[in-house]
Write a structure and sequence with these properties.
It is a single chain. The protein is mainly α. The protein has helices spanning 2-22, 31-58, 71-99.
């Protein structure tokens, strides 16, 4: 999950860089505070998303609803989540195969 976290941080930095490009810091009152608040909101939203993913994977669920997420948040966890679910499927399939007793 560390690479996912670093990717998320890079996306936020890119987003705040775009904020810097479109507006000069002196055009936005308290620009540093706004930048800090954006990063804090992003960190909270990703923490909530990671927590939800952890609960979903632990529940052996087969589907989940993604309410109130932005495309940026979904794309941040997309590769991690799909790879995790693929690995979970392989592990479950192997566990089921090894628990079946051979007929003699």
């Amino acid at each position: 999950m560390a690479s996912s976290k670093s990717q998320a941080t890079a996306k936020v930095q890119n987003h705040t860089h775009r904020l810097d490009e479109c507006c000069a810091a002196n055009d936005i009152p308290n620009a540093d505070q706004v930048r800090t608040l954006i990063k804090d909101i992003w960190d909270l939203r990703l923490a909530k998303l990671r927590s939800s993913i952890d609960i979903f994977i632990g529940s052996d669920g087969t589907h989940a609803m993604l309410n109130h997420l932005t495309m940026m948040e979904i794309n941040t966890v997309r590769s991690f989540l799909t790879q995790s679910l693929d690995h979970m499927h392989v592990l479950r399939t192997q566990a089921q195969g090894s628990s079946v007793a051979p007929d003699d």
